[in-house]
Amino acid sequence: MPRYELNGQVAIVTGAGRGIGRATALRLAREGASVVVADINEANAKAAAEEIESAAGTAYPVTVDVTNRADTERMVSETVARFGKLDILVNNAGIAVIASLMDTDEAAWDALMDVNAKGVLLCSQAAARQMIDRGNGGRIINNASGAGKTVPGRGTPLGAYAATKHAVVALTKQFGLELSPHGILVNCVCPGIVDTPMWELIDREVAQLEGVPVGSVKARAVARIPVGRIQEPEDVANLIVFLASEDASYITAQAVNVSGGLLPY
Fold first, then answer.
1. 161 catalytic, yes or no?
2. Which of these, 98, 178, 221, 246, has the minimum number of CB atoms within 10 Å of its CB?
3. Catalytic option among 60, 161, 250, 265
4. Quick one: 38 and 82 in the same domain?
């Protein structure tokens, strides 16, 4: 049963082929939105779109490289051509590189900044231009991560990743202020330890660096969560859908935690 009335709304979700993006696309569709399932992996985008369609939702897969301006503009153009408008953009596409800052090379830094930060900039610009031209406002919701509010610490080699997520928080706040005269609300979500392929990667690579069993790094992280369980992608999707709804019509330029108490600030 839908909680929020998003019938007639059109949404783009980037990185929607798996993990948090997939859960968000599915949830938006259940709430009545038509969803453009955007991902750099064509097969994953099509599979997620087919899952939505099989549940009587409306979806359209689009292959996109969020680091390429022409690609992001094409994504928005295809959305409008298919559905006539764009109401909601969820910037979810992201990557992680496991390395201490001293061991982070330029290629890794550039890749992280391109996808995680520049991707948010380019997609938001393309979406906001369309929303401004249409004149009915809109929502832009970014996936920032708890790493956008703190640093991973000496024992967790994700410093460059955290730098990109701090950038997402700053982009959110500034876009929120700049776009507010147009009725476009911009917010970001800050998840904690989410059960996704990204955390499987973190667990594997950090375990190898530490010489400990695979699974132990993730278990150690989960043990710190006050609510006592790992976060599911659907927990993040719940907040994203709320921020897309009319119930959140007075919220903008905010970085909202959804971390099971892991980020009490």
1. yes
2. 246
3. 161
4. yes
